[in-house]
Amino acid sequence: MSGRAAEQHQGTMRAISQNELGGPGVLRLVEVPRPVAGPGDVLVRVHASGLNPVDYKTRAFGGLLADKPPFVLGFDVSGVVEAVGWGVTLFEPGDEVYGMAGFPRLLGGYAEYIAAPARHFVRKPAGTGHVAAAALPLAALTAWQAFTDRAQARPGQRVLIHAAAGGVGHLAVQIAKSLGLYVIGTASAAKHDFVRELGADEVVDYTAGDFAQAVRESAGQVDIVLDGVGGDYSARSLPLIRSGGTLVSLTGPQDDALRPQAAALGVRAGFLLVEPDTAALRAVAELVADGRLRPHVAAVLPLEDAAGAHELGETGRVQGKLVLRVAE
Question: Which domains, ranges and CATH numbers included, belong to the chain?
Answer without folding.
Answer: 12-136+295-325 (3.90.180.10), 139-271 (3.40.50.720)
